[in-house]
């Protein structure tokens, strides 16, 4: 076997320009010299491109460590576009082209991964790759992965075992099948994936998607290739995501990447890096294009979406302090200046008054009054807020580093005490009351973790009581899964037995459903504006859509009055707004009968 080759590469945002900090880029060979294709026995790809100079010899005589040091010695202008960049010294421009090879993309995990899939495909499409939805005809299979808990990772390992058969049974007359792992799992496990699963050819972390054409070119030479460099400035601001569903009525728009909160249970800062925000202008351009395409809803995305801060324009980098929610502080030094989330939300909502605006996932600390006032005032900003609590116990929040400025005197701790705290249960409940006063009728959703390190039955019951007190419309509840590299992994003990975690989780789910049913039943008898998404998955005679609170609404597919063109009757289509009178409700779904097709503006007279 070749020895492990590590090239210390200086880049900036995965470019060949300078980088503030040097980072490792791994290239691992997986074939012996004797097994590499030769001109006497050409592989299919060599046949189509002619005899190529042996890649391994080019790499051996290619750029040295000193080459990369020299490239960082003098500042260089950032290329205006990826097309302006020169290829790496050991690859030709032709070798970076996809040559119409077919790529199959599978997405696992959160909405950010959906958006990452669209970014990765946009980059590959421009390099000459084709997209396929047929696994059997794929030349490249890329899995966009999640690492937030152990279960999503196990899903990927299982999927790789399934794909192994596909790869080994590949006909020799076809180009070799290449398999890549993208996203958070690649970033967390790095070379462990390549060592454990020899069938994996490629790894690309969340900040390395620009590098996919190069990585795939390296892979075609018989190497394993990986780029898991985390960037301080990569936002893909100049990459226009390609919508993966041509019939979509909504889209995700990434406005920032990474997270600085460093909650003790969370792997995100280690898989997606530090917070950095896209320039407002690039976000508005993307939203305008989505509006021009006829989409009726955009969701602004970020790991800590409402801490958005665009520092790209010097005139706004002043010393104005950041406003936080009352009773909340941060785990880091308070940041100043830049265009904040309220400015972005204001500008995005003005692009198209008929386009709904949502955002996720926010942090409770970043809800100053100017954001709440904007949500209340703008008709096209949905009156729905995701407000992750994680626990109803101030003691557990402290251990999670979601904290407590308001813990009473004399509180005893079994956890290390962290002094840069964020919030307590009391501060969280106060924020909930403030939200409901500021935005009448607002729908709330939340995240909860059952069985975090050291959680007692009393702590658990406090979470149960918070669920009953707040009465969320939607909830995302999970048993705690310890992740390596996190603060909890290094400083706390995962001491709640698995069966106790699962029992507590079931109790939380039961209570959540009871309270959500109560909250949702208040909509019965009301008329609500619904954005039609398509046919119901459970009935071909019903349509489904989402209301302002992001709850699923089911209603019959029938001819209705057309409020846009009076006197006509129409059947609602995906992307239409319809008025639906709610007749029944459960913890997850509303049902009703459709009244008419309408517009967002005209619906205000009825809702």
TrEMBL record:
UniProt keyword Metal-binding present: yes
Ranges where the Radical SAM core domain occurs: 245-519
GO terms for MF: 4 iron, 4 sulfur cluster binding; metal ion binding; tRNA-2-methylthio-N(6)-dimethylallyladenosine(37) synthase activity
Positions of region (Disordered): 70-90
PROSITE patterns named among the record's database cross-references: MTTASE_N (PS51449), MTTASE_RADICAL (PS01278), RADICAL_SAM (PS51918), TRAM (PS50926)
Cofactor: [4Fe-4S] cluster
Listed InterPro entries: Elp3/MiaA/NifB-like_rSAM, Methylthiotransferase, Methylthiotransferase_CS, Methylthiotransferase_N, Methylthiotransferase_N_sf, MiaB_methiolase, rSAM, rSAM_horseshoe
SMART domains to which the protein is assigned, alphabetical: Elp3
Residues of the signal peptide: 1-32
Domain of life: Eukaryota
Domain TRAM: 521-596
Record function comment: Methylthiotransferase that catalyzes the conversion of N6-(dimethylallyl)adenosine (i(6)A) to 2-methylthio-N6-(dimethylallyl)adenosine (ms(2)i(6)A) at position 37 (adjacent to the 3'-end of the anticodon) of four mitochondrial DNA-encoded tRNAs (Ser(UCN), Phe, Tyr and Trp). Essential for efficient and highly accurate protein translation by the ribosome. Specifically inhibits CDK5 activation by CDK5R1. Essential for efficient mitochondrial protein synthesis and respiratory chain.
Family statement drawn from the similarity comment of this UniProt entry: Belongs to the methylthiotransferase family. MiaB subfamily.
Protein name stated in the entry: Mitochondrial tRNA methylthiotransferase CDK5RAP1
């Amino acid at each position: 076997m070749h020895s492990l080759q590590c090239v210390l590469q200086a880049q900036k945002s995965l470019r060949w320009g300078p980088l503030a900090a040097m980072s490792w880029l791994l290239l691992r060979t997986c074939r012996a010299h004797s097994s590499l294709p030769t001109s006497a026995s050409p592989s299919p790809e060599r046949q189509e491109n002619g005899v190529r100079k042996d890649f391994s010899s080019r790499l051996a005589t290619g750029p040295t460590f000193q080459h990369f040091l020299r490239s960082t010695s003098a500042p260089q202008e950032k290329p205006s576009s990826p097309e302006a960049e020169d290829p790496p010294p050991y690859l030709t421009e032709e070798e970076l082209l996809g040559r119409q090879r077919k790529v199959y993309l599978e997405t696992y995990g959160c909405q950010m991964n959906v958006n990452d899939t669209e970014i990765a495909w946009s980059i590959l499409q421009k390099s000459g790759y084709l997209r396929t939805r047929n696994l059997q005809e794929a030349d490249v299979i890329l899995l966009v992965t999640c690492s937030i808990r152990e279960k999503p990772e196990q899903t990927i390992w299982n999927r790789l075992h399934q794909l192994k058969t596909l790869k080994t049974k590949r006909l020799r007359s076809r180009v070799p099948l290449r398999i890549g792992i993208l996203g958070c799992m690649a970033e967390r496990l790095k070379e462990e994936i390549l060592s454990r699963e020899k069938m994996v050819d490629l790894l690309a972390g969340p900040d390395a998607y620009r590098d996919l054409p190069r990585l795939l070119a390296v892979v075609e030479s018989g190497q394993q290739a990986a780029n898991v460099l985390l960037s301080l400035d990569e936002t893909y601001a100049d990459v226009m995501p390609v919508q993966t569903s041509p019939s979509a009525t909504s889209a995700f728009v990434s406005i920032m990447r990474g997270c600085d909160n460093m909650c003790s249970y969370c792997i995100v800062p280690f898989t997606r890096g530090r917070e950095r925000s896209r320039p407002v202008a690039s976000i508005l351009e993307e939203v305008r294009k989505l509006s021009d395409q006829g989409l009726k809803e955009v969701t602004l995305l970020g790991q800590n979406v409402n801490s958005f801060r665009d520092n790209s324009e010097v005139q706004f980098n002043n010393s104005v302090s950041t406003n936080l929610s009352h009773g909340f502080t941060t785990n880091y030094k308070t940041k100043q200046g830049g265009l904040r989330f309220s400015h972005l939300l204001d500008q995005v909502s003005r692009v198209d008054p008929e386009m709904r605006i949502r955002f996720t996932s926010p942090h409770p600390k970043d809800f100053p009054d100017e954001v709440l006032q904007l949500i209340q005032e703008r008709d096209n900003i949905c009156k729905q807020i995701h407000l992750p609590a994680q626990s109803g116990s101030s003691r557990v929040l402290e251990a999670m580093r979601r904290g407590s400025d308001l813990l009473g005197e004399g509180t005893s701790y079994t956890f290390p005490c962290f002094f840069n705290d964020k919030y307590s249960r009391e501060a969280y409940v106060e924020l909930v009351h403030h939200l409901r006063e500021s935005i009448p009728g607002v729908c709330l959703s939340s995240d909860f973790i059952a069985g975090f390190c050291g959680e007692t039955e009393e702590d658990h019951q406090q979470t149960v009581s918070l669920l009953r007190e707040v009465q969320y419309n939607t909830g995302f509840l999970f048993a705690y899964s310890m992740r390596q590299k996190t603060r909890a992994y290094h400083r706390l003990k995962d001491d709640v037995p698995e069966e106790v975690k699962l029992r507590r989780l079931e109790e939380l789910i039961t209570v959540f459903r009871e309270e959500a049913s109560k909250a949702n039943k208040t909509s019965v008898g009301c008329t609500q504006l619904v954005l039609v998404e398509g046919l119901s998955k459970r009935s071909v005679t019903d349509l489904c859509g989402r209301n302002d609170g992001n709850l699923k609404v089911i209603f019959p597919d029938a001819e209705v009055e057309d409020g846009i063109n009076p006197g006509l009757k129409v059947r609602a289509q995906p992307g239409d707004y319809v008025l639906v009178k709610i007749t029944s409700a459960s913890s997850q779904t509303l049902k009703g009968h459709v009244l008419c097709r309408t517009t967002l503006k005209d619906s205000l007279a009825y809702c």
